[in-house]
Amino acid sequence: xxxxxxxxxxxxxxxxMVRFRCQxxxxxxxxxxxxxxxxxxxxxxxxxxxxxxxxxxxxxxxxRHVKTTMxxxxxxxxxxEMVRKEIWAHLLAYNLIRTxxxxxxxxHSRSPLRLSxxxxxxxxxxxxxxxxxxTSRRHLTVCYHTLLRxxxxxxxxxxxxxxxxxxxxxxxxxxxxxxxxxxxxxxxxRMASP
Length: 194
Hints:
Elements: H1 3-8, E1 16-23, E2 29-36, H2 46-55, H3 57-69, H4 80-107, H5 117-132, H6 137-152, H7 182-192
Antiparallel strand pairs: 1-2
Helix pairs in contact: 4-6, 5-6
């Protein structure tokens, strides 16, 4: 926030405090307090705010899809300009896949939140060669609707109270890091072998 934006803020602000209990089976019951600018209790019911608060964990899943499923956990570029382009490319691809999920959900009467993001990527990659060979608009339309039908079959269960331990399943390999060009390392391997 710039100093000008900060100075433009009002001296005081009216806020609303909503308290509710959050009980997860097998866990303790917590009292949650949410502070919001949604002031009208008739238009924005406390239970709706509590439901929105509970859905916030879906953001964690979405971030995991961007980082892990789409392999953005390690950026491949080095210059700041290319890093920005790489991030924008990943976000564009993420939004396009979410649009596909939304279309599949609408066309097949499903909830877009209950369709698999990774499954959508796999279906898209499997059907890509058929659409790339298309020469007619009609064939492209058939390919698109086939893709939507395939994506709609990739359902995930509704797991509202799911929680997972933050641990790694696989251990990293104990190989040294690649610090020299591949051709130089190969040459050194050839020279070291008897």
